[in-house]
């Protein structure tokens, strides 16, 4: 792969840059809705810990890092986390962990904000 990105990450990113106008509209519209929902959820609150389960291509990680004191990106697929580390390299408050949400080792009952949006696809 010329870009150095894994196939899974390329597939995720293609959703937002699709040449298919319907697909591009749908995913970009969803991205905008999730971005607004995250911003609204954090407004006026101290967000000490945010967790994103399944960050995919990392499209929301920079926003989560800006909204929260600490962010954990959790994924069962190490390829996504490798890419996410690059996306958030300038954010020291982000930690990436391989974790299976069905048997999670993430902190329980301590999260102020949880995002799980790039998982079902």
List keywords for this structure.
single chain; 121 residues; alpha/beta; 4 helices; 40% helix
Notes on the structure:
The chain is an alpha/beta fold. About 40% of the residues lie in helices and about 15% in strands. It contains 4 helices and 4 strands; from the N terminus they run ααβαβαββ. A 4-stranded parallel sheet has the order 3-2-1-4, with helices on one face. The longest helix is centred in the first third of the chain and has 22 residues, at about 20-40. The two termini are about 25 Å apart.
List the helices and strands and how they pair.
Layout: H1 7-16, H2 21-42, E1 49-53, H3 61-67, E2 70-75, H4 78-87, E3 94-98, E4 113-115
Parallel strand pairs: 1-2, 1-4, 2-3
- The helix-and-strand class reads alpha/beta
The total beta strand count reads: 4
Strand content: 15-25%
Q: Average pLDDT value? A: 87
CA gyration radius, whole angstroms: 14 Å
What is the count of DSSP helices, taking H or I runs of 4+ residues? 4
Strand order of the largest sheet: 3-2-1-4
Distance between the termini: 23 Å
Helices and strands, in order, run as: HHEHEHEE
The largest β sheet comes out as:
4 strands, parallel
Shape: globular
Which parts are unreliable, with pLDDT below 50 for 5 consecutive residues or more? none
What is the helix content? 40-55%
Structure at a glance:
A four-stranded parallel sheet has the order 3-2-1-4, covered by helices on one side.
């Amino acid at each position: 792969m010329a870009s150095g990105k894994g196939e899974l990450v390329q597939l995720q990113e293609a959703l937002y840059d699709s040449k298919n106008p319907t697909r591009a509209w749908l995913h970009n519209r969803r991205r905008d809705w999730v971005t607004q929902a995250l911003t609204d959820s954090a407004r006026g609150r101290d967000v000490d810990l945010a967790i994103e389960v399944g960050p995919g291509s990392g499209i929301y990680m920079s926003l989560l890092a800006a909204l929260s004191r600490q962010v954990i990106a959790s994924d069962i697929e190490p390829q996504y986390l490798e890419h996410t580390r690059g996306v958030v390299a300038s954010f020291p408050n982000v930690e990436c962990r391989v974790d299976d949400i069905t048997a999670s080792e993430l902190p329980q009952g301590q999260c102020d904000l949880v995002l799980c949006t790039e998982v079902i696809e």
